[in-house]
């Protein structure tokens, strides 16, 4: 019976009704990251080296709108970027990046206007396999700060022209375009927080190594207005903060 296999419809304004682990799990995301509670991993027990980004400079990506976010995904068959190092064991293949407004994570109780998530899957696994194991996915989160002034539109310069084509979810995917994904990372030395959590949308599987960058990057007010105009079924697309419970947040030494 086909309808049984369909994912239940969900909205950001009715999060208490989300299915799956969403209201049952104890390792959920996003969380408020308390910087004073983050453990600096001096003995490299969890963070064993720097993050290594391979092949992020020139990637063919197409934009789409799934009714919950705008997303840029890799073109099938193209060489995919590979993330390794930091808290990760082995390689993770880049799948897509997408945006949340406002940010999902908070730092010392403070939220940013926008957060990008770069979703990676443990290399060699299918999505179904990855969603069934604790180390299946790795997501990098980067915050945006609104800034008026020279250069504040640089990070998103390549993807902004694609946004008019994906304002609502009934539009088709955009044509692919070559994108430098490293523009979404700060130039400053990488310092980040990492913890084990979940997808922030149903079914909220607890399979994500979260790597949340400490330093925000910039977005111009004009660019930000394009996000808030996008139809994602409501005015915002962030999940509410979840309890940290007994989880440890580690902090990298930049
Ligand atoms: C967004 O809705 C993405 O478009 C989803 O990707 C993504 O799910 C979901 O958010 C959860 O990702 O980094 N916020 S998050 O935890 O990547 C997955 C797709 O629909 C599995 C492919
Ligand atoms: Zn996300």
Radius of gyration: 17 Å
Gross morphology: globular
Bound molecules: 3,4-di-O-acetyl-6-O-sulfamoyl-alpha-D-glucopyranose, zinc ion
Q: How many beta-strand elements?
A: 15
Euclidean distance between termini CA atoms: 52 Å
Q: Structural class, from helix and strand content?
A: mainly beta
Proportion of helical residues: under 10%
Helix/strand order: HEEEEEEEEEHEEEEEHE
What composes the largest sheet?
13 strands, mixed
Averaged pLDDT, please? 94
**Counting H and I runs of at least 4 residues, what is the number of helices?**
3
Low-confidence stretches: none
Which percent range describes the beta-strand content?
A: 25-35%
What this model shows, in words?
The protein is mainly β and 254 residues long. The chain has three helices and 15 strands. The protein has helices spanning 2-5, 127-130, 221-229, and strands at residues 32-33, 39-40, 51-54, 59-65, 70-74, 82-85, 92-100, 106-107, 114-122, 137-146, 177-179, 192-197, 208-213, 217-219, 250-251. The strands form two sheets. Strands 2, 3, 4, 5, 6, 7, 9, 10, 11, 12, 13, 14 and 15 form a 13-stranded mixed sheet that branches. Strands 1-8 form a two-stranded parallel ribbon. 3,4-di-O-acetyl-6-O-sulfamoyl-alpha-D-glucopyranose binds at residues 66, 68-69, 71, 98, 117, 119, 139, 199-201.
């Amino acid at each position: 019976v086909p309808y049984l296999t369909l994912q239940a419809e969900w909205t950001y304004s009715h999060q208490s009704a989300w299915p799956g682990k969403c209201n049952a799990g104890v390792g959920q995301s996003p969380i408020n990251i308390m910087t004073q509670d983050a453990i600096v991993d001096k003995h490299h027990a969890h963070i064993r080296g720097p993050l290594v980004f391979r092949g992020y400079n020139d990637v063919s990506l197409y934009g789409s709108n799934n009714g919950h976010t705008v997303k840029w995904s890799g073109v099938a068959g193209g060489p995919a970027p590979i993330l390794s190092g930091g808290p990760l064991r082995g390689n993770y293949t880049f799948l897509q990046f997408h945006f949340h407004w406002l940010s999902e994570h908070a730092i010392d109780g403070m939220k940013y206007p926008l957060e990008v998530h770069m979703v990676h899957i443990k290399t060699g696994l299918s999505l179904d396999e990855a969603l069934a194991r604790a180390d299946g996915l790795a997501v990098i989160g980067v915050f945006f700060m609104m800034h008026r002034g020279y250069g504040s539109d640089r990070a998103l310069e390549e993807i902004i022209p694609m946004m008019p084509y994906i304002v609502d979810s009934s539009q088709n995917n955009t044509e692919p375009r070559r994108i430098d994904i490293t523009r979404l990372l700060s130039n400053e030395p990488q310092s980040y927080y990492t913890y084990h959590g979940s997808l922030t949308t149903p079914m909220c599987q607890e399979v994500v190594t979260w790597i949340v960058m400490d330093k925000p990057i910039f977005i111009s007010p004009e660019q930000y207005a394009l996000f808030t105009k996008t139809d994602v079924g409501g005015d915002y697309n962030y999940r509410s903060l979840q309890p940290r419970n007994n989880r440890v947040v580690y902090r990298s030494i930049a």
